[in-house]
Amino acid sequence: MATIIDGKAIAEKIRADLAAQVKELQSRGITPGLATVLVGSDPASEVYVRMKGDACNKLGMHSVKITRPAETTEEELLALINELNNDPAIHGILVQLPLPPQINADRVLEAISPAKDVDGFHPYNVGRLVTGKPTFQPCTPYGVMVMLQEAGVDLAGKEVVVVGRSNIVGKPVALMCLQRNATVTICHSKTRDLPGRVRAADVVIAAVGVPEMIKGDWIREGAVVIDVGVNRVGEKKLVGDVEFAAAAERASAITPVPGGVGPMTITMLLHNTLEAAKMAGSGKG
Ligand SMILES: Nc1nc2c(c(=O)[nH]1)N[C@@H](CN(C=O)c1ccc(C(=O)N[C@@H](CCC(=O)O)C(=O)O)cc1)CN2
């Protein structure tokens, strides 16, 4: 039976350390500030943005939640980003995704100052990630890497299979694993024999957004399973991309949903916002 990698517990430990660092920074006259921007009223996005604001406030950070109607134009959103780029009380800007279809998300993400890009989605920061330079690392993949480290998983020489190729999770997490000397395979909807690929993995990172798509009997005995999926099934139930109970019988360690990668995503956002504030305070922002 697998060990559970408890994202909530790891997140709490990191947040306690971040709170102490926020206090120290405040004693030097700097309060880290995060602006979240939500366009429209997608219920899941509303929950995530609220959680981000609450998490900031709990740590003593300054947070501003900006909501705009679903009909907002790209120009209006770009003007807002420009204001936030020039606001000295704001060190981090986060535009909640997805955006409504009339808005080109790439153009909006590129408008965020790279020094305030705490999501790590600006092409400048993506380029630095690709080339292995220090940068804001995208929050969910960053959280995955911290969880693997906390679970004592050394990736060097391991076969890592990432299922999913999104810009938010699949691609960056694959790069981060490569940076730690894993042999990485990225699988997607056109991959032939997905079960066979997964069965060859020492570490499986599932980020497809399809409820329980990765079957328990695809998991190799002793593999580590990181489930990034947060899928709502019915009114209230949340499930991951992996068939949890069956996978846990074969894996050596596995993340639950909820309480796995999700809480780490917000924790790494807090971490990045604090770093952005420190850099601004030292004149490097
Ligand atoms: N600008 C961004 N947009 C989106 C990102 C992102 O990193 N930046 N990621 C996802 C959603 N997301 C953060 O925004 C996110 C998803 C899940 C959780 C989380 O804590 N989940 C909990 C369950 C919460 C619940 O009850 O719904 C868990 O898994 O335990 C946090 C953040 C898309 N958009």
TrEMBL record:
Coiled coil: none annotated. NADP(+) binds at residues 164-166, 230. The keyword Amino-acid biosynthesis applies. Keywords: Amino-acid biosynthesis, Histidine biosynthesis, Hydrolase, Methionine biosynthesis, Multifunctional enzyme, NADP, One-carbon metabolism, Oxidoreductase, Purine biosynthesis. CDD domains: NAD_bind_m-THF_DH_Cyclohyd. Its EC number is 1.5.1.5, 3.5.4.9. Pathway: One-carbon metabolism; tetrahydrofolate interconversion. Residues 138-279 form the Tetrahydrofolate dehydrogenase/cyclohydrolase NAD(P)-binding domain. GO terms for cellular component: cytosol. GO terms for molecular function: methenyltetrahydrofolate cyclohydrolase activity; methylenetetrahydrofolate dehydrogenase (NADP+) activity. Pfam families: THF_DHG_CYH, THF_DHG_CYH_C. It catalyses: (6R)-5,10-methenyltetrahydrofolate + H2O = (6R)-10-formyltetrahydrofolate + H(+); (6R)-5,10-methylene-5,6,7,8-tetrahydrofolate + NADP(+) = (6R)-5,10-methenyltetrahydrofolate + NADPH. One of its GO terms (biological process) is tetrahydrofolate interconversion. It comes from the Bacteria. Residues 5-119 form the Tetrahydrofolate dehydrogenase/cyclohydrolase catalytic domain. NCBIfam families: PRK10792.1, PRK14186.1, PRK14188.1. Belongs to the tetrahydrofolate dehydrogenase/cyclohydrolase family. Homodimer. Catalyzes the oxidation of 5,10-methylenetetrahydrofolate to 5,10-methenyltetrahydrofolate and then the hydrolysis of 5,10-methenyltetrahydrofolate to 10-formyltetrahydrofolate. This is Bifunctional protein FolD. It comes from Geobacter soli. The gene is folD.
